Amino acid sequence: MDELIPLRDARLGDLSVPRPGYDRSRLKPGIVHIGVGNFHRAHQAWYLHRLMQDGQALDWAVLGAGVRDYDAAMRSRLRAQDCLTTLVELGPDSISAEVTGAMADYLPVEADNAALVAAMADPAIRIVSLTVTESGYFVDPSSKRFDADHPDIRHDIAHPGTPRTAFGAMVAALSRRRAAGLGPFTGLSCDNLQGNGDILRQTILSLAGATDPELASWIESRMTFPNSMVDCIAPATGPAELELVRGFGIDDAAPVTHEPFRQWVIEDRFCAGRPDFDRVGVTFSDDVHAYETMKIRILNGGHQVVANAGELLGLDTITEAMQHPRIAAFFGKVQAEEIAPTVAPVPGRTPEAYVALITERFANPRIVDTVRRVAFDGSARHAGFILPVIEDRLAAGGTIAGLALVEAIWARMCAGTREDGSAIEPNDPLWTDLTEAAAAARSDPSVWLAQSRIYGTLGRERRFAEAFDGWLNLIWSEGCSAALDRYTSPR
């Protein structure tokens, strides 16, 4: 192989793939993004890059940020390559690459978040966006209310000048802006949460109100939190992905692989302005809820249908799970009969068409998305993606047999062993509690549903509890495959 070209501004002209055509020295930050993972760089940063390629939005460059120790490693990798990223698009029949450059810098990762607070207090920053995972908003999964008792939140309330969380840092920056006579920035969540803007608003207002009610009132009256729906599968980067980017002659320590599909739907509520994202395919809508319901229930919920069963049966990737006859039949039936009926159409797409699209995307053989990554944080993902569907089905008097089986498979998975006896490594912030409940549920399934932090009162719904009990007993006595066969067999 020829010598690899280091991914640096000075070497962009030597690359053989599409690359920034704009002068990156002219970039001026307008956005702070907290949580610079693969998804952000394959999705939001890509849309911004497309605008910049057209000579637009050069004053909307991204300042990357993180609040956890592991973010420092990503900062180091990205700053060593001038915050450039190689995106490798993996289509079913083709592979292509491009280098994107919408990120201007990555802020220091500090215990007191001083640099982050200072950056967000700068009036040049007009949007603060986040991808901090579904469980990262300090919301009780059952009540959906702000969790003021979390140790990190208690710290931020007691020490508002040296916050530990992203939200404490946002509140501290907003306090500085208000004191300086400046307006607020827009808070833009890009996480897979129903009403993600509303949830971000609740977190910020609750935290601000605990330390400075007048600041909370100012935020409530002047700041905007648009809801958004984001969609693009971007697997984790490992040795295979690093080798893949080398095939394009590029030395990139943090490449991102992704599928060809992208979608972004946002409410057009930006108190300090925004880039012209609609020029590059972003949809602005007053009905984001319809889009996010379709995506969260069919795609994100579908991921849990596939990943938990795949983990239990010893499969490695979502594609392998979709190639498994029993899991594929399970996915198809529960989507058609129980999930899609709770979803309304959106302009240009029916729920049935979206199920077909998701089936095709999950089966893409080039997307090496592991069942472990998709199953991560199941306590938040089941609460957000599956349980609302069960509640709607129960209210409508519809069948919930397949959804109850989804929950029983997850409960069995959380026992911590696959059916071949191999161990499942911890994969949830609540893993210890989940494994204890799963062990007890082997003899008494009601113990699992009694986890009120996840199920609230749903676990006491008779139809759901009876179906769940039956499936979990069957899985423990005869195995997951027997349960899948019973559900999918013609009756």
From TrEMBL:
InterPro entries: 6-PGluconate_DH-like_C_sf, 6PGD_dom2, Mannitol_DH, Mannitol_DH/Oxidoreductase, Mannitol_DH_C, Mannitol_DH_N, NAD(P)-bd_dom_sf. Pfam families: Mannitol_dh, Mannitol_dh_C. Keywords: Oxidoreductase. Residues 287-469 form the Mannitol dehydrogenase C-terminal domain. It comes from the Bacteria. Residues 30-278 form the Mannitol dehydrogenase N-terminal domain. GO terms for molecular function: oxidoreductase activity, acting on the CH-OH group of donors, NAD or NADP as acceptor. This is Mannitol dehydrogenase family protein.
